[in-house]
Amino acid sequence: MKLYDYILSPSCYKVRLMAALTGVKLELRPVDFHPGAEHRGPELLALNPAGSIPILEDGDLLLTESSAILVYLAAQAAPEWLAGSKPEEAARVQQWLSFSGRLTASLGGARLHEMLLRPGDIGALQAQGIAALRELEAGLFEQAQRGKRFLAADRPTVADIACFPYVALAPDGGVSLDPYPTIRLWSRAVRALEGFIEMPGIHRLHELKPEPTVETGDA
Ligand SMILES: N[C@@H](CCC(=O)N[C@@H](CS)C(=O)NCC(=O)O)C(=O)O
């Protein structure tokens, strides 16, 4: 399988991470995203008219959209990363896959603005990012109250991988993760997964600081 990839792209990293966690071997085809904007050149636009990466080729199959690619890799190599047969779990996986697009637009947009000087209303992007992080914190907190450490189940699914990178890199866009203890716990759980790989700015769990405490209330 060939991945059109850029090392600093969180969306491409989702695919590299999923492949590493599920033992899928990828051939990486580096894209000159910056400064070359190769993803907007004729060769890549012919593959993905949306002008974005990642793009995955597997024989005759061409896939765009990171969430679809995650589902494809999991279905091929590790179906336990997909939703199981429980209707609520299936719905939650879809909910967070869809939600991950908001993280890309808000936190990802703020990061592009801060790192690559992309034009945009940084205040609005950060405010949308913070609103999304609050939702994520609430969702994970509810899961914690049910004794579950991940977004859709008590095991990681494609939904966690879809949401994780832009959250972990939020500080690159000037958005702090300090107010979100449940998100930080979840991030630790993801970074501690067997087979986890890093990207610049996201490190595997090796620090020994005490875990943040989360009050789960009496209810
Ligand atoms: N919905 C797409 C979005 C991916 C995305 O935003 N990729 C970025 C790189 S991290 C990109 O190619 N952006 C195009 C651009 O900013 O010009 C997906 O999930 O695959």
UniProtKB/TrEMBL annotation:
It comes from Rhizobium herbae. It holds the Pfam family GST_N. This is Glutathione S-transferase family protein. InterPro entries: Glutathione-S-Trfase_C-like, Glutathione-S-Trfase_C_sf, Glutathione_S-Trfase, Glutathione_S-Trfase_N, Thioredoxin-like_sf. Residues 86-212 form the GST C-terminal domain. Residues 1-81 form the GST N-terminal domain. PANTHER family: GLUTATHIONE S-TRANSFERASE-RELATED, HYPOTHETICAL GLUTATHIONE S-TRANSFERASE LIKE PROTEIN. It comes from the Bacteria.
